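Minutes, project huddle
Topic: does the predicted pose make sense with protoporphyrin IX containing FE bound?
PN asked that the exact inputs be recorded in the minutes so nobody has to dig through chat later. Recorded below.
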Amino acid sequence: MKDNNKTTVYDWPTRIFHWLFAFLFLGAYIIVEIIDDESPLFTLHMTAGLIIGFMLILRISWGFVGTTYALFSSFKMNPAEFFGYLKDAVVAKTKRYLGHNPASSYATIIMFICAAGLAITGVIMTGGSESDFYEETHDLLANIFLITVIAHIGGIIFHHIKHRDSLWSSMLDGKKKVLPEETGIKNSKRVAGMLFLILTLTWTGYLYSKYDSTNQTIDLLGQELVLGEKGHESPYEGENHEEKNDDD
Ligand code: HEM
Ligand code: HEM
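Predicted holo structure (tokens), as shared on screen:
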């Protein structure tokens, strides 16, 4: 089963980003679905989102200075090529690409925009804004993100059934089957991958160090974000006013 006919296309920073991004997205999504928003565990939703936001800054920077197929300039963003690709995917043998194909190029950009928007609206919501606009936008972006992820995974399964060229594993080992007209990358940037991981862990540690578990707030670079219900309500607020007084 060993296939020597492969070449490296995705470097380490891109691959580490991919799996952390996927894991944290699913984590953030599952938390809002299964955990009550009054539970202290709900704060993990915001934490996951803030880590995604940080990783996105690193990935976008890498999109300008990284290796060939991590670069945004290598993405196939021509709309005619995109529709041609989708048409071929249904009726003919789809053209193969060494880097991102047109469908995954678009999916990537949509996911990046949604994730950035989710982080920004999330920070504004927890930063004290009462406007429904941010909550509704957050909800909308989360749904667009989810649909794109489903299309992404569906596309990979479809591609696998059709081509059997193990595209699906290219985000694991970084390798794709060679193509005559394109060349793979020479250096898979292991050190940059380690640096990416260290920076992300440092950011996570920073968030942890700035978290006040009593009030469920976080001091994010000088801005206080209220992550939990505790921080939202004063003890004498709301319907339970009398009960709270009795407790005193
Ligand atoms: C929550 C789940 C997932 C999310 C959010 C996600 C997100 C992404 C993103 C953002 C990219 C672009 C990577 C970049 O250039 O930085 C990408 C590419 C890719 N992903 Fe995923 N992904 C998910 C699940 C998966 C799964 C389960 C697989 C395979 C088993 C997979 C395989 C790939 C592959 C092969 C590419 C490259 C596609 C190409 O070469 O055209 N992804 N994904
Ligand atoms: C990529 C990351 C994120 C995803 C996928 C995501 C997704 C979601 C979803 C699906 C909901 C439920 C919306 C509803 O049905 O009402 C939600 C709610 C919420 N999210 Fe996020 N989110 C992300 C990042 C963030 C960040 C970074 C923050 C804050 C720093 C945040 C704060 C919140 C809050 C406070 C709510 C509750 C809003 C309400 O009261 O309905 N999220 N998020």
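Observations noted during the meeting:
- Residues 233-248 have pLDDT under 50 and may be disordered.
- The domain at 6-247 is CATH 1.20.950 (Fumarate Reductase Cytochrome B subunit).
No decisions taken; revisit at the next huddle.
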